[in-house]
Amino acid sequence: MKQRFKMRVAVYLLLMKGDSVLLHLRCNTGYGDGLYGLVAGHVDGGEKVTDAMVREAQEEAGIVIDVSDLKISCVMHRIENGVEAIDYFMLANKWQNEIRNMEPNKCKELKFFDINSLPDNVVPAVRHGINCCLNGTVFSTFGWS
């Protein structure tokens, strides 16, 4: 019997403070090292995407976000290096606790940047997702020929 195809599911947080978004400088992960990304991670089995986002925000930035304060802004079907993923980009502008780098072995810094003036070195798929959120594009693809 043919094995059913399984796809990765990831969540990305656009944590907003006014017109600025929180980015983290990736390191030692094997993906996008030296580039800025969003607080993000994979969805565990048996976990809602919104619960995964709350978990990742706490694991990576030490903050608590209420599920009701998350807004799914864009869903992206991505392929990179032959691996497919569904990415949920979520917006939040309310949180509890001070932001702090909880994973210094994977993140050199957490810093807010003007959403309309992001650094050049942003993970390309993340930049695409952010642009989709800014433009009101609720579904997009990335990496397909």
From TrEMBL:
Cited InterPro entries: NUDIX_hydrolase-like_dom_sf, NUDIX_hydrolase_CS, NUDIX_hydrolase_dom
The keyword Hydrolase belongs to this UniProt entry's keyword annotation: yes
Domain Nudix hydrolase: start-end pairs: 6-138
Gene3D superfamilies: Nucleoside Triphosphate Pyrophosphohydrolase (3.90.79.10)
Pfam family, one: NUDIX
Keyword Heme: no
Cofactor(s) this protein requires: Mg(2+)
MF-aspect GO terms: hydrolase activity
Record keywords, A-Z: Hydrolase
Coiled-coil boundaries: none
Protein name, UniProt field: NUDIX domain-containing protein
Species this protein is from: Candidatus Sneabacter namystus
